[in-house]
Write a structure and sequence with these properties.
Blueprint (H helix, E strand, L loop, with lengths): L10 E2 L2 H10 L1 E6 L2 E6 L5 E5 L4 H6 L2 H14 L6 E9 L4 E7 L4 E2 H7 L1 H20 L2 E2 L8 E3 L5 E3 L6 E2 L6 H17 L7 H12 L1
Parallel strand pairs: 1-5
Antiparallel strand pairs: 2-3, 3-4, 4-6, 5-6, 7-9, 8-11, 9-10
Helix pairs in contact: 4-5, 5-7
């Protein structure tokens, strides 16, 4: 896959183009500041980044950080969406975006809510996948069920990795513990009480040994 889009100058999306996307697309995720993820009419997705530090984001746009993280993951053989373009939505406010082709699969969160038996069968593989990420020095707070996909061909993929941090070696015990604490907090916030976290932790320990 070519990564020339990382070196390209980010083009500015016109107001008309953005409005066309909003009119013809489907808002998948939004917050109080506006749409965050839009499924476009052609099946691609637009992910919008509104930084809490807009002055910094003007020089270091979060869209480029997202794209670089995708590249780093792909180099490690970890499936991610296919990035197509990095864009400016509002350059003066540091609002950037990534246009990408989605990764096919079903989120583990949807399996937890709709097909818990299938998710239960995937737990050993999911634990081994998390172990693989940790052994490759990958740490990020957004490692939770909504951001991990079960792929049709088997295995898993990641779809939200803006806050990824790539360490030089495997994660230490404290970061591993912190990563699972973030997962536990996500389960609590999303009220996914049925997820067998203790079993996942046991499978992780087994994979570690």
């Amino acid at each position: 896959m070519s990564h020339n889009w990382l070196e390209k100058t980010m083009r500015i999306v016109t107001a008309n183009e953005l409005q066309h996307w909003l009119n013809n697309g489907k808002i998948v995720e939004k917050d109080g500041r506006g749409p965050k993820v839009i499924q476009l009419g052609d099946g691609n997705f637009l992910k919008i980044f509104r930084s809490k530090r807009p002055l910094l984001a003007r020089w270091r746009p979060e869209a480029k950080r997202f794209a670089r993280n995708a590249q780093a993951l792909q180099k490690l053989g970890i499936a991610t969406p296919e990035l197509l373009e990095c864009l400016w939505i509002e350059p003066a406010k540091g609002v950037s975006a990534c246009l990408y082709h989605p990764l096919a699969g079903k989120s583990l969160e949807s399996l937890a809510k709709q097909q818990s038996e299938q998710l239960d069968a995937l737990l050993p593989d999911f634990a081994a996948y998390i172990r693989h990420l940790h052994q490759n020095g990958i740490y990020f707070r957004s490692l939770h069920l909504g951001n991990v996909l079960s792929l049709p061909s088997g295995g898993f993929g990641l779809i939200d990795f803006l806050d990824l941090r790539l360490k030089r070696g495997p994660l230490g015990k404290s970061l591993v513990k912190r990563n699972f604490a973030h997962l536990q907090n996500h389960l609590s916030r999303r009220r996914i009480d049925s997820f067998p976290l203790e079993k996942l932790l046991a499978c992780y320990e087994q994979a570690s040994s």
